[in-house]
Design a protein that fits this description.
Elements: E1 4-17, E2 20-33, E3 37-41, H1 48-55, E4 63-72, E5 75-76, H2 82-85, E6 93-96, H3 110-121, H4 126-139, H5 156-168, E7 174-178, H6 186-203, E8 206-211, H7 214-217, E9 223-228, E10 231-237, H8 238-243, H9 248-254, E11 305-306, E12 312-313
Parallel strand pairs: 3-8, 3-9, 6-7, 7-8
Antiparallel strand pairs: 1-2, 1-4, 4-5, 9-10, 10-12, 11-12
The chain binds adenosine-5'-triphosphate (ATP) and magnesium ion.
The site of adenosine-5'-triphosphate has 16 residues, from strand 1, strand 2 and helix 1.
Length: 322
């Protein structure tokens, strides 16, 4: 579709190990419209970070993309040479990393780091770069008297805001955020998410926000992709997934957190562990943990297929027949 900023098509990516190739992302497809907020959720090890790294082309040393395409405004990023891709990374698409709070350089002040980010990619004067740094700090609610501060002089929430300011200072079209708030307390997490939502409305960039905590995403994201063992098992508008999750795994995740407004229910949680990705089991990867699984689920891989209300579901029992 012409309006889509990003299209990921049947992407396979992972890590070469002595024992073989770990397919951490296995046949993932998704699309992101301009200005859309996509949340990606799933348990630890399901491939969320690998997907983000693949999109940013940051997989190195035996890690990489095996097949599939990543189209940014229709152009296949996987086919670009490194120099051509560098025109996209940080300027058109930026990422805030999982360990973002500690990713700031400890020996450089906030001002130096923000200005360096600008000067590395734009031919502007130092005064202009400083003005951009101040403007961006204001946007993330940090007073400019913090410009000379070093990372250790800032609270965790402030460091996180500085990282977001760094990622946004070149006004990218896509912001990829990998668990950017997990090390923060819940109140700070929420205020940072609200801030990101506010900046998105102001600048119109698209967001991919990755977390294992689905409860953070349901209110703020437009769409949700739920990942399990390297694959997307349910994908669609957040509201629909929240109100009527179709995949048993999504239902398990949704019942693992308390609703703010609904009746009090027992916290669900899902028994068991996700499979290893070196030799994933045949059939549906969730079947061994699924209370609804039938014999066919252990034999045939379900593909993502329309399951009503604009969503796709990969479950033989709940719409995703294909
Ligand atoms: N460098 C590596 N070498 C081999 N396997 C790896 C490597 N990094 C990650 N993996 C494997 O790839 C799979 C996906 O990892 P990934 O970090 O993408 O998961 P994640 O969903 O981001 O998890 P988390 O929520 O813990 O951050 C896991 O099974 C992991 O063990
Ligand atoms: Mg991760």
């Amino acid at each position: 579709m012409a309006d889509n900023l990003l299209e990921v098509e049947d992407l396979a990516a992972g890590y070469e190990t002595k024992a073989g190739f770990v397919r951490a992302v296995d046949g993932v497809s998704l699309s992101l419209a301009k200005g859309e907020f996509l949340g990606i959720a799933g348990e630890s090890g399901c491939g969320k970070s690998t997907l983000a790294y693949a999109v940013m082309r940051l997989l190195r040393d035996g890690a990489g993309i095996r097949s599939g395409r990543i189209l940014f405004e229709g152009r296949d990023l996987t086919a670009l040479g490194e120099a051509a891709f560098n025109e996209y990374r940080w300027t058109r698409m930026a990422m805030v990393f999982q360990s973002a709070m500690n990713a700031l350089n400890p020996v450089l002040s906030v001002e130096e780091q923000l200005m360096d980010a600008v000067l590395a990619h734009r031919s502007v004067s130092k005064a202009e770069a400083r003005a951009m740094a101040i403007e961006m700090l204001h946007l993330v609610d940090i007073h400019e008297d913090r410009l000379k501060a070093y990372p250790h002089q800032l609270s965790g929430g402030m460091r996180q805001r500085v990282m977001i300011a760094m990622a946004l200072i070149l006004k990218p079209d896509l912001l990829v955020m990998d668990e950017p708030t997990t090390a923060l307390d819940v109140v700070v997490q929420r205020s940072i998410l609200q801030k990101i939502g506010e900046l998105r409305r102001k600048f119109g960039f698209s967001i991919i926000f990755i977390t294992h905590d689905l409860s953070l995403l349901v209110e703020i994201s437009d769409s949700l992709a739920i990942m399990y063992a390297g694959k997307i098992c349910e994908y669609g508008p957040s509201r629909e997934l929240y109100v009527s999750p179709a995949h048993p795994y999504t239902r398990g995740l949704m019942s693992s957190f308390p609703s703010l407004t609904g009746p009090i229910v027992r916290m669900g949680g899902i028994e068991g562990q996700a499979p290893g990705l070196l030799y994933p089991p045949p059939g549906c990867r969730f079947a061994p943990r699924c209370s609804e699984a039938k014999p066919i689920c252990f034999e045939q891989v379900p593909s993502l297929a329309p399951a009503g209300e604009g969503r796709l579901c990969a479950c033989r029992l709940n719409g995703g027949m294909a």
